[in-house]
Amino acid sequence: MNRRIAAFAIATVAVLGLTGCSGAASDDTSNDAADSADSSAPAEETNTDQSVEEACGIVIPKLQEASAAAGDIDTTGATDPQTTVDQFNTVVDAFGDAADSVSNAEVKDATTAVYEDFGALSEVLSKVLVEQDMSAASEVGTITSDMTTSATALQELCS
After folding, report:
1. pTM to 2 decimals?
2. Which element (helix H / strand E) includes 40?
3. Could you tell me which of 100, 47, 41, 90 has the C-alpha nearest to residue 67?
């Protein structure tokens, strides 16, 4: 019974965190105006051929697709714990692929931060479900906070 509760709790947190990455990029014209008015834009943005808007246009749909795939994660306890972890890792890997798919440094860094935070949750999920180390569940609060911060930063960058 404890395994089912842990699986449900952690998977629910993961799915809630994933929804933080589901925002769509806003209208390009408003971003162009904001970008030209913002004199504090990082200089590294000029070192790439890919704009923030272009990179977000690539990353956001990939993250949305990964978020949708999170709905396939078994939270009922009907599968073995390793399968649940593997399903979650598929979602996390998609986040890494999204980060690798862009060359804009700002968007790549923001997406990589989201990927790393979800990777940390994956490690906790494995410890709790597979290794039965319930003490690892105490890390969920910190990881969830980190996930929220990184997802919010990516959303703000891409809005």
Report:
1. 0.73
2. none
3. 90
